[in-house]
């Protein structure tokens, strides 16, 4: 039943205005439903996320969300050009010149948003 419904992620922000600048200016997201309690961003396949204010932002040591992409190295180059800094996690696997790690059937890279939330790009291989 739930597998047939779109899934939405929540992204916490300590400073909503700062987080919006990061997502909208550095990642190029466009808000579809901004409001005082947060803002919604829409993605492919009827997916979306809700960015909302909370003092708990950045407290998770695990990834909050990831994007399944077709060319992780191209995405890294585009995001680096926008000022995104990627995390050099010491993981087992083969590292590409762009910094992505290939292991376990995927090529992946991680970065943090302005609030300390961990996000990832993943390319199946």
Distance between the termini: 29 Å
Count of helical stretches = 2
Low-confidence stretches: none
The helix content is 10-25%
What number of domains?
Answer: 1
- The CATH superfamily title: 2,3-Dihydroxybiphenyl 1,2-Dioxygenase, domain 1
Based on the structure given, which CATH architecture is correct? Roll
Number of strands: 10
- Helices and strands, in order, run as EHEEEEHEEEEE
Largest sheet: 6 strands, mixed
Mean pLDDT: 92
* Shape, principal axes of CA atoms: globular
Name the CATH class: Alpha Beta
In terms of structural class, how would the helical and strand content be classed?
Answer: alpha+beta
Structure write-up:
The chain is of the alpha+beta class. It has one domain (2-124): 2,3-Dihydroxybiphenyl 1,2-Dioxygenase, domain 1 (Roll). The protein contains two helices and ten strands, in the order E-H-E-E-E-E-H-E-E-E-E-E. The chain has helices spanning 16-26, 72-81, and strands at 8-13, 31-35, 38-42, 48-53, 63-68, 86-87, 94-95, 101-103, 106-112, 118-124. The strands form two sheets. Strands 5, 6, 7, 8, 9 and 10 form a six-stranded mixed sheet that branches. Strands 1-4-3-2 form a four-stranded mixed sheet, covered by helices on one side. Strand 7 (94-95) and strand 8 (101-103) form a beta hairpin. It is globular and about 45 Å long. The two termini are 29 Å apart.
């Amino acid at each position: 039943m739930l597998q047939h419904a779109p899934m939405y992620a929540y992204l916490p922000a300590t400073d909503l205005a700062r987080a919006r600048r990061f997502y909208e200016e550095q990642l190029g997201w466009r808000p579809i439903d901004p409001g005082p309690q947060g803002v919604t961003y829409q993605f492919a396949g009827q997916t979306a996320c809700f960015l909302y204010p909370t003092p708990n932002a950045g407290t998770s040591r695990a990834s909050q969300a990831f994007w399944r992409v077709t060319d992780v190295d191209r995405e890294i180059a585009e995001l680096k050009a926008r000022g995104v800094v990627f995390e050099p996690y010491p993981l087992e696997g083969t590292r590409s010149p762009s910094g992505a790690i290939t292991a376990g059937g995927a090529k992946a890279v991680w970065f943090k948003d302005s609030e300390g939330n961990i996000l990832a790009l993943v390319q199946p291989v």
